[in-house]
Batch of 4 targets.
Target 1
Amino acid sequence: MNNLSEELNKKLGEAVERMPAFPKSVQKILELTRDLNCSPKVLVQVIENDPVITMKILRVLNSAYYRLPSKITSINHSVVFLGLNTVKNIALSIAAIGILPKKNAAGFDVSQYLLHSLSTAAIAKHLGSKIGGADPMDCYVAGLLHDFGKIVFAQFMPEQFKVALETSMKDDISLFTAEQAAIGTDHTVVGSMLAEKWQFPEPLINSIRNHHSEKAGATVMGSCVYAANQISKKMGYGFAGDARVESLPPAVSKHFGININLDVLIDSIGDDELSKILEHAKQFAQVDAS
Amino acid sequence: MKIKFWGVRGSIPSPRAGTVRYGGNTTCIEIRTDNNELIILDGGTGIFPLSQTLLKELPVTANIFITHSHWDHIHGLPFFIPNFIPGNKMILHGALDPVSGRGVEQVMDVQLQYSYFPVREAEMKASIEYVSLSPGETVQAGSATITATLLNHPVVNFGYRVECNGKSLFFTGDHEPYSNIYSPGDESYEEYRGLVEAQERMVFDAMHGVDVLIADSSYTIDEYPAKKGWGHGTFDSCMQMADAIGAKILYCTHHEPTRDDDALEREFAKALERHPRREGMTDFRLAREGIEIEF
Ligand SMILES: [Zn+2]
Ligand SMILES: [Zn+2]
């Protein structure tokens, strides 16, 4: 297991502070905050659809300052606890940083990344509510944030990340293996380190850390995120740099039933549900036809 | 414990003929422990007349607790006279601003910029100390114990429970009762309802059984629908809250700046009719500048 140096961990944490959010949410937040009576529901929805804003709000909320008896992952909970306007102000301060550029030096497409994250989130939520044993909204948040490390690489280590993306493609190896060679660590490590640094709930940290490992099978939530990630890739919903679809390790698949493989699981979700998930994700990811 | 109201007006100082009886100064409450230690809740304009009375007991240590950073709760702080006299001490307590990440010192900094106020903090002769509190944190001020509770307002707002020698008081600062942002039938309605109930329970626990509850009752129930989300309560919501937590006395405060004394008494009386009192129930009162009670 790769560990980030204390210094890199600190540097990335600070860098994420200055990280802008996705175009659609920035536009929506500016629009909503011009209207004094903006609907709280819509604001929650915008935040829940943006991994950067979700990450930053959870960071504020789970910081030692608030001394919460139990950790918070839900944006609704953050609105009740911090108050709508404080959440709105945090969102606004993130919107003020700017917009995550579609073109980055790594050649990583952020709209396709968002589409992948949103569909993974929605599928994880669906799986969570179907099999029970995990809070569906927690599964959603874990799915939304599982690849956060990649957007950090694209933004702050674009040259090395570019090499990883190209190697993964050229040698047909999974992206996290290529990242380890090119960067010395991978997105599961960086994503979970940030989540840990910001004192996110343990199950969320673990789901991010293990989403390419059979250790994901240790919990229902980890299994839902693992499976949802592979389903999203198999269905071609967006693209986050990793073309390889992995089969479900037994430790993961056992949560969904006997003799369940990826195709059976996809069938069990059904076309209707999947196309609904894709439609919703597309609305937010702003993927253009090109 | 002794308390005295130095400012009971919300939003903006409102001195005029129509507000002479209840007063025009913004929020400030003086508390004296049985050992005569000084605790001040909020630094609205009421803190200026209060600070003048302190000149006869110098040197003074003022334990000030700021509920939140809105003007009407901090506006008098630069005019807290003991700060200009060596030997005095001010300990300013309050929340951290989650957006800027800055502590309670921010409420002085923003006001003591030279273009807005002629004296810089460095020129103040008293010792000034800042203590940023976390939600739920308890601190000691002399013989009193003060606990901060996060309430519901557009900015982070702490309600404070002050306890001393078996007596207790809770001041809300500005607070609006929690409500569901979803409508029945929405997917998240039930989840949100559960969260709201849990949060309300936590707040009520923090207030439970106080001798005196001082609460934000800015609006009438008729005015409220147009002001929902602005972060203030109503006479009725305060009365329900006081009954629910079993307070002995409720003081309604943060009076609307446009509400003259007669209208204030009229609206209060109407709310009282909706919440009839029997022996042993909470005694409902209107906070008035200058009144002092001991309990
Ligand atoms: Zn106020
Ligand atoms: Zn206020």
Target 2
Amino acid sequence: MEPVTSRVYQSLSQLKSPLFRGSLLTSASVLERHGTDESYHAARIPDAVAVASCEGDVQAVLRTCSDHGFPVIPYGAGTSLEGHIHALRGGLSLDVADMNSVLSVDPDEMTATVQCGILRSQLDNYLRDTGLFFPVDPGADATLGGMISTSASGTTTVRYGRMRDNVLGLKVVLPGGKKIQTGKERRGCSSAVDLTSMFIGAEGTLGVVTEATLKLYPRPEFSRSTVCTFQSMEDAIRTSVKILQQGVGVSRLEFVDETSIQAVNRAYQSWHEEKPSLFLEFQGSETSTKDEAETVKAIANKNDVIDVKTATELEDQKKLWHARHNSYYAILALRKGGKGVISDACVPISRLAECIRETKEDIADTNIFSAMIGHVGDGNFHVIFVVDLNNLDEIRTAKEITSRLSHRAIRMGGTCTGEHGVGMGKIPYLKAECDATSLELMRTLKKTLDPKGIMNPGKIIPE
Amino acid sequence: MSLSRVLVGVKRVVDYAVKIRVKPDGSGVDKTNVKMSMNPFCEIAVEESVRLKERGLAQEVVAMTIGPSQNMDTIRTALAMGADRGIHVVCDQDLEPLAVSKVFQAVVQKETPQAVILGKQAIDDDCNQTGQMLAGLLDWPQGTFLSKLEVENDALKVTREVDGGLETLNLSIPAVLTCDLRLNEPRYASLPNIMKAKRKPVESIPVADLGVDIKSHLDVLRIEETPKRQGGGKVESVAELVDKLKNEAGVI
């Protein structure tokens, strides 16, 4: 172990409880896991992993690492897509997954306060008999801390908004070990500077979020899901734009291309129609969802739909949505050992069809294999390339197409990072998206909060 | 044909997501401040009963629980999922499956349902006995480990998950049924339904009023956590592996 690392390790091991009650791990497989996310970026392994059991542990770790100027990378579930948790300068991976309790639920105020290591699915499960739920669903089973740190959105954003709209307050431990409580635990309170907002999307570069107060919503009384299959992607996208422009109250509106569905069928031996498809979900009452589904059917029929299937029983809906929810891993599985290069462009709805068409043309010019899925409800879509990490040409082609797509999206008034965050992969585009003074302000903020630069170094802000 | 009344049993157990701990004195599981929920297999039983009603195959669904005052929460959840009314047999001690079946028998005699639907087992004791014992006490046919339930020609056509695959049976009515995992996906309780549930009638019956013998026949000697997993070891050659299997593990 490097001298600095061993000094940090010693400092942490010597901390007597109650200062540090967690554990320190250095086995190869644990380190590897904490240096690899779900992207194609090569693994960057930390020097050690500290598993925190409580807020006090997080404070002890940040204090110790601050004293030694040692990098710290907060780690939740490792589902990030742009190398967010990769230890670019070594350091300590701070695993908060054990801090996963629901601290309180207030059914009258419709809020919940949770520890940030809790998985989205754990929270959903906990709330299942309260009649309330937390709606943001990024697709991956990430921790709430991870979702906050990347300002996640997802399949339900078209109706319920993003993390930013649904986080009321945070507890954050700052570099140096001090802790703060941002926002209030109730909705509708104003305060001087919106500190909560600052940490949402900060990807662990400004501090470690340990607790969050979240806005909950009544679970819909009834939900109905519909899948529309089309001959071409253009028909599907055109239909989705018409559905949105007509103001149909959809709760999920997703596009999945035929390649993705083929991948799912192959991975799971399922029998979904292998055609460009729209997956929709309507929530409300039995009658309101029926009306919405019929409106969509009528629109789809006017736009050359091949088939419309609707389901109401929970397990039938799950079967329908299976093709969308499992697409990423199924697509990766098409190629043994393949890794994903995944774009995250988000454009105004009015430019969506144009953006996708130009992207498709660009891809067709190369010979590279790709699949496409998207939250077309927010103008957000993902192109997924499955690359062989040993084939540098392939990786370069995939990155070039993604780069052109990112610039295309920015040019069309959108963003290159709809929901995956910046991590390390999207840093080059930040200059195109943000003006120089904004970037300067971000740097100043970072330097003020983290003068030694220990928090997740090398992420978000271009140097 | 439609069943006039279905009786569903619901048990309040430690929530399946909780990491349980054994009390230091080995007397039991530490349940202080631990989240309690309806047993997952009971949720499936309630869901199936409510679906029967929605399909017009059952007229009334009655949810029943045995336990202390906190069990009211469990009944209310069943009501929020669609049960019509509840029966709370108030009892402060933990009952063994035989005692539970006898309590159910007494309530069955009172309520005369045409089907009793239970979860196949509870996730705290994993006994998987109540349904079978109840059928024995009532001398009713039983369909256990159901993955499918249909009402056809005045009989219950059930599909059971068995070791060899799936078994389909016709049971005459009345019958006892126990539900397995793949029978259905239980619905979430919505807020409006939780509100409605508060106004549905629940009858409280002290267990003594049923005149049932609930004496326990089992003594719990001790409860221990499973031993911690030991690390494995690596060997350099097949000869070394064989040697270890023979002389250390003693398995060959």
Target 3
Amino acid sequence: MPFHIPQEEEYKDYAVVMKGIVKQFPKVLANDNVDLYIKRGEIHAIVGENGAGKSTLMNQLYGLYNADAGKILINGKEIAIDNPKDAIAVGIGMVHQHFMLVGPLSVAENIVLGDEPTKKFNLFDLKRARREVKKISEEYGLKVDVDAKIEDISVGTQQRVEILKTLFRGADILILDEPTAVLTPQETEELFVVLRNLQNDGKTIIFITHKLNEVIAVSNNVTVMRGGKVTGQIPTKETSTRELANMMVGREVLLRVEKEKKEAGEKVLEVQDLKVNDNRDLPAVKGVSFDIRKGEILGIAGVAGNGQSELEDALTGLRKKIAGTVTFNGVDISTATPRDIREAGMSHIAADRYKYAMVKEFTVAYNIALGRHYKQPFADGGFLNHRKINAISKELVKKFDVRPPEIQLSAENLSGGNQQKMVVAREFDYNPLCMVVSQPTRGLDIGAIEFIHSTILDLRQEDVAILLISMELEEILSLSDRILVMYEGQIMGEVTPDEVTMEELGLMMAGSTLEEARSEADE
Amino acid sequence: MNILKAILDAFANPIFYSLTLSAATPLLFASLGGLFSEKTGVTNIALEGIMLLGAFSGILGTALFGSPWIGIILAMISGAAAAALHAWASINFQANQIVSATAIILLAQGLTGFLLEPVFGKPGSTEIYDKIPKIELKFLGKGSFLYNMIGSLSPFVYLALILVVVSWFIIYKTKLGLRIIAVGENPEAADTLGVSVYGIRWFGVLMSGLLASLGGAYLSVGELGQFTENMTNGKGFIALAAMILGNWTPKGALFACLLFGAADAMNEQLQSNPSLAIPSSAKPLFNLIPFVITLIVVAGFVGKTRSPAADGVPYEKKG
Ligand SMILES: Nc1ncnc2c1ncn2[C@@H]1O[C@H](COP(=O)(O)OP(=O)(O)O)[C@@H](O)[C@H]1O
Ligand SMILES: [Mg+2]
């Protein structure tokens, strides 16, 4: 049975109907005549690449943006939603892509904010707030410590707080905007359990993602968006990740890149008993050792905050090493500066693109020159050589398909995927011996991920030694030759991609050894 | 060691404590004002200018209506007006908050300096008018140590201390306070829950105007009974430093203001101590003491304090 487009008399069975929604931003038409039909009580997935207009559409349903055209019907009744208050009043709750939480306030305070219980003289009644939050948290099985401060709890718990926020306001229609982007596989599983429970309670759920296996796992129907338009509506049972991917991107895509067999060469990078502290000066990397060979990809898997970013910074010279040695191409670089390390042949795709990898106010051309701006061919005796900078940038932008191919555009005007391509282009152009690649596809969509993955494999083919740090297990499993799992600053073990499952890897990331993970996964 | 002895003398002198309290009072008003503004996410370095306006309007009201109490009301009106200007520019128009506040300081200095002569008939300072009478605690026994310490203080001193408690209560015990913190930390989050970001920020900035102008009015109608040109003399900035040092809490601001007040009082005691015989040419150097202490303390503590996360960041409502 194909997707059923309801007639007007059927709208009363639909929690949400959005018809002919148009939203024009100064430079982009973010929603171009979008229709959305969400049946009451279903889990409805909306998928689409970054920039497809999913968040914009949902922000209009939640009253954060006002549509230029179109109408919204809730349970068959047309209503105007001008601000979040209106949305809350008709039972809509939204968990935003970027969490909307107040760090120094407690869980209970965050949940009741804007709808606070009061006592005499209109004073805030914290006791009642705690009690009420506890009650709904137990009712829906969403465990939280009501007194913990938001800034002290994990991302997974923060998400539970966000969901509780909507339930506290009596939401019947829940919008979750890319809720799994920040979760570990286990946390994602837990979220799915919660979503199914909510569905059993009669709630309607709109679930946005660009991870297609999640769509298949949890939804009843799917709406696909591309370039501001709806390009597909289909019951989940009747589709596949492949078909959804094609609808999303508009062409055939490889969901998993093909990796050729290859013998690793000689050792390039050797790390011995490395110790690194974090920003608060507490131990973050607690004595790790490994090496990487030419033409080999060593993956580092782990949940965020287990020392990977400190490891990344230490290897590239951005952070002081407390103890241990790092030998690169036969030279001790334990105390070398970032520039020395680059000169020695290591390049770096940083996890935090805006902090380290690019200057967003600079043009694409300057970003490509960055880091080599002081030497030939980018500079001539202390002066920038703009002719060369532009020529090299033009060539790289073309080769790496940075869109739009305008080298004089500020980098901030590129989408995330294209910014990342620009960074990859520059780092590739260093002709490195070794590359430290951290979270290279975070937040990117299928098309861009495919491109970055094949570029990393090209580097491997060219005998570059690659350290790949990633929280995406799929990425680690499909690219790496060997995998180290990091947990609380230590390495839990080394595995190869063909001897381990995603589930086992997930358990190791939560602190199990391979043997423990195996026996637990069997149960 | 004359100087050491002079310092010990000061500590033993009850007057030192009453001076500390009265020097801390204007700072405390302005500090609490700055606190309200910054807690909602709007920096307000215009405290200095608002205090000056308050001091001027206080005397103006006294001169026009013959009562320093009406002077206080006029001071609060002018403080609120100046703050409204800052709020309007920096909240509704997302102007640069430092620029907007600097403009208000310059405006206040220019306006009070310019109006002084045409309104009061002479340059530099006004006549001496009625002041707000002090609260005499006669039961302490005139001349006793305790009386000299706290027996004869301006009602402003008590008001400032009460306002510390009131501010703490508003910020940490009321609905409004929860929203103030939320808006100052993450305005978007507050907005998505239907809390009016602009409304809360307006409240914070207006409070800073009301409180800072009270601090200024204390200088003129509370203490001296006259207005002299630029009489705030940097106190608005010291109040700002006290707010930071106090880690954006009312209690912290109280301790920081007392510290700066004590520095001021010590300076006065040392200068008037005959055994030190400070030549009048060296006095300006001693007057730097409070500023030097501010610098040292703030430099030492500032890394350990944490400002509201969205402090100084304009919030733009979405399309
Ligand atoms: N506030 C805004 N102002 C201008 N352009 C915007 C704004 N929000 C989103 N856009 C643009 O609208 C398009 C759709 O964005 P969005 O809805 O966030 O996509 P998605 O959630 O599907 O990744 C993008 O091109 C984005 O750059
Ligand atoms: Mg989005």
Target 4
Amino acid sequence: MTWDIALILSVDGVAGAAIYLLAGLGLVLVFSVTRVIFVPFGDIAVFSALTLAYLEAGRWPPTIALVAVLAAITAVKEVVAHLRHGRVAKVPAALGTWLGLPLLACVPAQLLAGQELPPLVDIALTLALVLPIVPLMARLVFHPIAHASTLVLLIASLVMHFLMSGLGLLFFGPEGFRTQPLMRGAVELAPGFLVSAQVLLMVGAAAVLAGLFFLAFERTLVGKALRATAVNRTGAQLVGIRPASTAALTYCAVSLLAGFVGILIAPSTTMYYDSGLIIGLKAFVAAIIGGLSSYPLTALGALAVGMLESFASFWDGALKDVIVFSLLIPALMIRSHFSHHSDDDVEEEEV
Amino acid sequence: MTALLAIEDLHVCYGKVEAVHGVSLHLDAGQIVSVIGPNGAGKSTLLSAAIGLLPSQGRILFDGQEIGRLGVEDRVERGLCLVPETRELFGEMSVLDNLQLGAYVRRESKADRRRQLELVYARFPRLAERRTQRAETLSGGERQMLALGRALMSRPRVLMLDEPSLGLAPLIVDEILAIVRGLREDGVSILLVEQNALAALESSDYGYVLESGEVAVEGRSDVLKSDERVFESYLGGV
Ligand SMILES: Nc1ncnc2c1ncn2[C@@H]1O[C@H](COP(=O)(O)OP(=O)(O)OP(=O)(O)O)[C@@H](O)[C@H]1O
Ligand SMILES: [Mg+2]
């Protein structure tokens, strides 16, 4: 291997790492706040990518129907629950939250789909459409079993993944899609060393998003409330933080992250209805390196996964995934070596 | 006037085992009421049920309204606040973060929150010194102060304290109890659970002696203090 090749592979690796970083942050966030290992993350990213592809092609994205149906089911369930407990006064708010808001996100896409639109508008419409998916599904699936064991939550999460990839096949068919790159051409980073502008955009966007994510967590009261819920659930309740609200907020954030992942990855990788699982699993490797709790370590893990994947595909394309997933073994060994016997252990055992 | 917090015929179970059998208790506005009793009497259980961490049968009235079916957060929002025996701090977060989160339910301006923070710092200068330190690295006494400070940040109407003097040096115990008495002047009503029965009775207006999940004796604190039976069974060792 020459330096040139190594450099090119590194660029690929960093580009991949950008994706796994966002996905890994999403997984760690969901797990630490709700104890759910969010397997369908990749599927949501696929929905985002394919929705964008449909909008670009001037087709009506079936995602609109998905959101509308999910919103209707969730709203009915919430209203029935309120009525059964005699809380009639809460019905309008429930309708507004679980039906009104998601439908509102659909309106612009419904009105504008099928027209020739600027790329940024397509992206905005896509994000708006993807945003309600996870909160709605989580309200339906995870909310009723919020106190169940991690294993039960994982099983529900797996079921959700199969459901989502099935729906993906139903909605978008078996063929793959690529979206238009936002930027064309290449930038010469060093003499003779060209990097495509799209890759730079991808890495830059991921870095900015991850930075915003850290800021929101460290600086805002709401971000602190999410952390507090992750650190001590009882303590959070005692200061009046509502687990249901923090969960909803978490799922919104994750939906957005998945939306961005789909949008960032789709110009460089052909996306199929079932591409999600492998993205999610590799991000999971990064998240495991972060112990499903540390954001900085997850970022490091994402970089390791991205790099390893890129170099492994050069050595042996067929074995690339095997090599990436075997990273789990040393990662877990090192973690178990350094982990002191604290609450972390209990969680890891439960996993 | 109706009591600010009224607990009536409260039963609390752990699984099939009942730990609190029909306890009734009243706390008027501006009062300090203490609950004393031997280990395992059900004092902590009573407080956990009152804040909603444990399900219970019976009635819990706050400001005349039934709150027994509400979730913990709703009760906290109405002005009930518990500092549990286990403190439940946010260990991996800083002292300042813990305090700020204490004011989470108060949807108030940044300036108001800052003012409240300064008040808490004034009460516990030690916390101000250690505002960037992680809560889990605080000493036992500092942790108690943080728990109390976090509770004060929410400016509760009823503050329930479970053994605020646990593990503290005698001098600090006096200090904490003085702070508790001072809170009453700020209009906070306090339900105080204490191992240190004599100190608790000295600080409170009214007292309940809990034994095996039932109220054994109740009465004005000064009367209880000089009550032969109470003295022998609960204060004898002090
Ligand atoms: N989680 C639990 N499961 C089963 N039983 C419990 C549980 N917590 C407490 N108990 C039992 O309930 C009874 C009352 O306990 P509680 O903690 O309320 O006592 P306490 O009066 O606060 O005692 P102490 O002064 O030691 O703090 C005890 O017999 C205890 O063993
Ligand atoms: Mg106790």
